[in-house]
C-alpha cells in the first residue's frame, strides 16, 4: 500500500472510548522503547505524528491514526516496562489485552521486537496470547542499523525457532528506511 494521507484520530484510555468499528485496524504492539512511535512516523512520513521519546514507558493510551481515510493504524501502550507500579501495569495490561481479545475490526497485529534482544519473556507471552486468540500477526525487528554481523546471525536464529506462526518477519530501520516498502507491501493483505 501507499500512504497518501495520515492523520491522528483519537486517543483512548478505556474500551468505552473506542471509535466505531468503521475500518480495518492494523495494530502496532511492542515493549516500551522498541521504536514503535518512530516506526509510525517513518511509515507515514510524518515526523510528528506519533510522539517519540527516549524515556520509556510514557505512552499509556491507545492511539488511532486514520490512514488514507479507510484504515486505522493503532498504537498500543508499550508493555514490559519494569519501572511502573504493579497496579498501573495491571490497568494497561487489561486495556491492551481486552482490546486485542474483543475488537472485531483488527485485521493484523504488527509485533515490534528489538532486533538486539528479540523475543524476551514479555514478547513470547504476547506471541502466545496472539496465537491463543487467533490474531494474525507479523513481526518487525526494529533498529537493525544497530546490529553487528554477529548479532544479525544470532537474531535470525532466535526468530527461526520462536516465530513459526508469524505471517512475516521484516528487518526494519526507521533511520535508514530499510524495510519500509517491504512492510507496506505486506499490509496490502490486511486492508479492505
Ligand atoms: N538506531 C535506531 N534507533 C531507533 C530506531 N527507531 C527508534 N530508535 C530510537 O529508540 C528510542 C525509542 O523510540 P520510540 O519510537 O519513542 O519507542 P516507543 O517507546 O516504542 O514508541 C528513541 O531514542 C529512538 O530514537 C531505529 O530504527 N534505529
Ligand atoms: Mg511510543
Structural overview:
This protein is α/β, with parallel strands linked by helices and 192 residues long. The protein has one domain (6-190): P-loop containing nucleotide triphosphate hydrolases (Rossmann fold, 3-Layer(aba) Sandwich). Helices cover 31% and strands 22% of the residues. The protein contains 5 helices and 7 strands. The chain has helices at residues 36-44, 86-102, 121-132, 149-162, 180-187; strands at residues 6-12, 25-30, 62-67, 71-75, 106-114, 137-142, 169-171. Strands 1-3-4-2-5-6-7 form a 7-stranded mixed sheet, with helices on both faces. Helix 3 (121-132) links the parallel strand 5 (106-114) and strand 6. The structure holds guanosine-5'-diphosphate (GDP) and magnesium ion. Magnesium ion (MG) binds at residues 36-37, 59.
Topology:
Layout lengths: L5 E7 L12 E6 L5 H9 L17 E6 L3 E5 L10 H17 L3 E9 L6 H12 L4 E6 L6 H14 L6 E3 L8 H8 L5
Parallel strand pairs: 2-4, 2-5, 5-6, 6-7
Antiparallel strand pairs: 1-3, 3-4
The chain binds guanosine-5'-diphosphate (GDP) and magnesium ion.
Amino acid at each position: 500500500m501507499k500512504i497518501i494521507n495520515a492523520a491522528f484520530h483519537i486517543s483512548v484510555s478505556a474500551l468505552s472510548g473506542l471509535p466505531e468499528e468503521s475500518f480495518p485496524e492494523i495494530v502496532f504492539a511492542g515493549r516500551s522503547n522498541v521504536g514503535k512511535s518512530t516506526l509510525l512516523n517513518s511509515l507515514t512520513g510524518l515526523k510528528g505524528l506519533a510522539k517519540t521519546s527516549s524515556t520509556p514507558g510514557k505512552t499509556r493510551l491507545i492511539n488511532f491514526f486514520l490512514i488514507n481515510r479507510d484504515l486505522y493504524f493503532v498504537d498500543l501502550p508499550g508493555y514490559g516496562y519494569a519501572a511502573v507500579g504493579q497496579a498501573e501495569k495491571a490497568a494497561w495490561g487489561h486495556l491492551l489485552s481486552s482490546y486485542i481479545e474483543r475488537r472485531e475490526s483488527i485485521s493484523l497485529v504488527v509485533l515490534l521486537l528489538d532486533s538486539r534482544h528479540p523475543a524476551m519473556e514479555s514478547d513470547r507471552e504476547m506471541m502466545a496470547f496472539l496465537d491463543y486468540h487467533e490474531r494474525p500477526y507479523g513481526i518487525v525487528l526494529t533498529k537493525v542499523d544497530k546490529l553487528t554481523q554477529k548479532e544479525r546471525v544470532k537474531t535470525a536464529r532466535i526468530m527461526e525457532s520462536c516465530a513459526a506462526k508469524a505471517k512475516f518477519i521484516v528487518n526494519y530501520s526507521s533511520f535508514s528506511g530499510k524495510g519500509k516498502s517491504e512492510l507496506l507491501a505486506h499490509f496490502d493483505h490486511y486492508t479492505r
